[in-house]
Amino acid sequence: MALRDHVGRSGGRLVRLGALAAVALVGIATARYREPLIAQDTAPTFTKDVAPILYKNCTTCHRPGGLGPFSLVDYDSAKANIDDIRDAVRSGFMPPWHAEGPHGTFSNDRRLSDLEKSTVMRWIDAGAKKGDEKKAPAKPVYATGWEIGTPDAIVTMPEDFTVPAAGTIEYQYFEIPTNFTEDKWVSAIEFMPGAREVVHHVLVYAKVPAPANAAPAAPRPAGSPAPRPLFVRKPQYDSPEDPPRQDVRNGPPSRLGVLIGGTAPGTNVMTFPKGTATRIRAGTVLTFQMHYTAHGHEMKDRTSVGFRFATEMPDEEMRMGAYINGAFTLPAGQKDIAVTADLEPTEPIKIWGLLPHTHLRGTRWKYTLDKPDGTSQVILDVPRYDFNWQTYYFFKEPLDVPAGAKLVSTAWYDNSATNKHNPDASKDVKWGDQTWEEMQYTGYLFTVPSRRLKPAAK
């Protein structure tokens, strides 16, 4: 996955609004305000009506020391930026959310409700009054540094990597032992780049090296069936072989292991739903796949990953995977080009979250569940895909996918000159790591009911 700088937006104030926040978190913010919002007959005030909305939806980024360009924790700062707030709320540009579907479909839905929008707009139109300080809710308190609080374990790159001022940087791979002496159940993962400006994605893989004196695996008895894979192999979607590597440093290891987490613009913390956790085995070695992009001046990065451990074994083990179509061509100058891929399990699974990913030519996504009985339903529709806000869409209730069903992903691309983000409309475009190339990639989080760790509640 290649990840680029925030792409500029046209249209007056929305250019500035593109910096309203740099990262949207999948994890749940430290502070939550769950009191029902009731329509007011009188003009709303900051303390009584607006602060609860901002604290619930905005101050994760818009706080002192946060990633937003200004704080919304205090009245004075909020009032000083009411023009930006008005435009962001009216347009739906903030909080960032690009999927369709009713409220309640996704557990991490960042959209304001109609009542919340109306309250903020009425407050601004009525003069943005402060109100009675005694009616203000408690200000949210956020952990400093790590959003998940102090991690139970931190794994860090062994040394700094120097990102040059210019040029193409091939993916860099760093293997780091965890030194875990027992299996760990992880309930949340957070990524902490050392130089966020040049880190455009991190993927973390986990493997347990075989002991040096381990006996070779016994061959399968003659005539016995091969183990059935969990998913049907789709060779027609394979991506082309990587070109010969030019950089001899930090190349990929012979075995990456299983994917356990990743970060990209819009996703920095992964908090797994209650009753689930991902397992990291004793003796695991992590591999960080780092995608760096030069920013005009040399910088040093030393990325860390923090883990919060579950207090007990979960009901289900959360697993992570990805499926792609790497065999496409986007013809030069053409727009609205559809590229599909599908995931087909051989036994029932539950899908908990989906992450659509394309590069600068991607415009929209749609996912359908095509069932063996011939019925089909749309389960995720992202009509306004934004490369700068790549969201893991967590379903409030997991999606049951029966054996033989297909989870079909369709991404649309604009490779024409009318796409202002297009690096070069004169060239055919294929799969590739760099941002000026393209991808059709879906990350997904899933559990397998037949492999539950605890019996299901009756």
Automatic annotation (TrEMBL):
Q: Could you list the residue ranges that cross the membrane?
A: 14-33
Gene Ontology terms, MF aspect: copper ion binding; dopamine beta-monooxygenase activity; electron transfer activity; heme binding
Q: Where is the composition biased (Pro residues)?
A: 218-228
Region of interest (Disordered), ranges: 213-257
Q: Does the keyword Iron apply?
A: yes
InterPro entries (alphabetical): Cu2_ascorb_mOase-like_C, Cu2_ascorb_mOase_N_sf, Cyt_c-like_dom, Cyt_c-like_dom_sf, DBH-like, PHM/PNGase_F_dom_sf
Q: Would the keyword Membrane turn up in this protein's UniProt record? A: yes
- Using the record's annotation, list all stretches that form the Cytochrome c domain: 37-128
Key words of the record? Disulfide bond, Heme, Iron, Membrane, Metal-binding, Transmembrane, Transmembrane helix
- PROSITE patterns associated with the record: CYTC
Q: Would you tell me the protein name for this molecule?
A: Cytochrome c
